[in-house]
Give the backbone structure.
Amino acid sequence: EMRAAARIQTSILPRTLPSTENLEVAVRYAPMTAVAGDLYDFTKVHPDSFGVFVADVTGHGVPAALVASMLKIAVSMQTGRHGEPAKVISGLNSMLCHEARDQYATAVYVYLDEASRVVRYCAAAHPAPLLWRRSTQTLHKLDEPGLLLGVRPDEKYVEGEFAMLEGDRLLVHTDGLLEAENAAGQSFGAVALAQFIEARQDLGAEPFVDQLLKEVLAWSLESDQPGQSDDITMVVIDVKEREK
């Protein structure tokens, strides 16, 4: 049954990544066990725009995976709302409150419009997406407030917005990335992540997420043995620089 659950969960994850002329996308998904409470998905809105959804259901194992599957279906049903992050998150919150009471999740939805070069996003108690501005060598925490999904059905959510610039890198992730602990109980943490982002800014999206996941998993040790303590999901979106 666990193997069957793992196959089903794998089957609902995206099989392809969004592809546009000026954006490069890379993903790494590392469940702690056979099935996970983490979820990521992409919504295609127009040829030059798409949405990125990342969620983390409370708990682990099969119960969390079942709720994650519900969220996946609910995201795909948000027809007409995909370009409006706050409405997407509000719809998911309402669904969870009414259809899966006493189940909770953090989530973030990011909508990228390549034509206008505007990004809008909305979060529900989820770790803030991180924006690396290569042009200014600065890291920005996109920290909009938002209540956990599943608490109040009529909760209002707000959107944040920023303009995409050439060389920008956006990292959307679950808390398993920051909270990975070593044998001494020390978390990988925001400081180490910020240092990694700056130090590896010259890497492309794929080698960047590959090295980041390897570094976090190497950090997660218990008595000198691998000891991943949570699901880890990360999505990176790079704005390509034009050739000069």
